[in-house]
Amino acid sequence: MLGEVQTLKDVLTRNSKEGELYRKIDDKRIECFACGHRCKISDGRDGICRVRFNVGGKLYVPWGYVTSLALDPIEKKPFFHVYPGSYTLSFGMLGCDFHCDYCQNWVTSQALRDPVAGAMPDFISPEEIVEIALKYKSRIITSTYNEPLITSEWSVGILKLASQYGIRGAYVSNGNATPEVLDYLRPYVDFYKVDLKTFNDLNYRKLGGRLNVVLDTIKMLVEKGFWVEIVTLVVPGFNDSEAELRDIARFIASVSPNIPWHVTAFHKDYKMTDPDNTRPEQLIRAAEIGYEEGLRFVYAGNIPGYVDKYENTYCFNCGALLVERFGFRVLKNKIKEGKCYKCGTIIPGYWD
């Protein structure tokens, strides 16, 4: 139990180790490249994320704890083209390099930034996490709940060990990455979900990021061989215009028409309580736009049963229903050896 004089910052400082994703600028200053901010941090200061910090010219990073650890359906991440119906062991830490007003994980992501946020860590080792994954026969371990890029050394510590047992790694991320961190992750992370939050750079800056960095990340992920799925939370009055949704879909299709695009429903949360919740018909129209712009797999999520056919996977060649879903449940999976059961077309993804 914490003593009265201990703060969350004190606890996190003690549960840190020297990081790998940085370079020295001089004896006192360092540049962190775990995320696209590339913070230049002076001795005694934190990065934007508040959990990576400089002590004596060395960068210290989170290690040895989780705030959340759960066995989730892989569809919840959401990955719809990765082992449908399987489960992933998901873990999260504290902190984020963005400050989205509608964050649904704000209690953990905004710790150390918002005095109302913060969850106490549970201390654990990489070996214990991998043992849990093995016990529950999880094929994937996913870094999620907070922004995984800023805790990448911890993730690699877990996933490197897990890879010895055939367990694969996944990231659920805002996509504010650098080439260095993606190269660092690539040996241990196969599956990468990116939140493409808006196609308006001004709006991105309000959230704490930059549009071009996220777009570059998506392109790099595909070039480096990650399996990529993209999510856009459709927020009324923020990013829900047909023109903006069409721009997003057009960009994704220009990178690869095989990237699944998930359009999901906003609900009032954290500091954003003015917009209306997203209506099912808005998600259906967004999904239609995705197909109109040349995407082969578009999904409308998190309102099960209200989004027509857009929870399912269809063959882009013959139109056959391949994977039928209701929410996170897989009702039918007719993909055989990675191919459409009806016409034999290869369906991009990981199915077996």
TrEMBL record:
[4Fe-4S] cluster binds at residues 96, 100, 103. Its cofactor is [4Fe-4S] cluster. PROSITE patterns: RADICAL_SAM. Pfam families: Radical_SAM. GO terms for molecular function: 4 iron, 4 sulfur cluster binding; lyase activity; metal ion binding. The lineage of its organism: Bacteria, Pseudomonadati, Candidatus Kryptoniota, Candidatus Kryptonium. Residues 81-296 form the Radical SAM core domain. The keyword ATP-binding does not apply. PANTHER family: PYRUVATE FORMATE-LYASE 1-ACTIVATING ENZYME, PYRUVATE FORMATE-LYASE-ACTIVATING ENZYME. This is Pyruvate formate lyase activating enzyme.
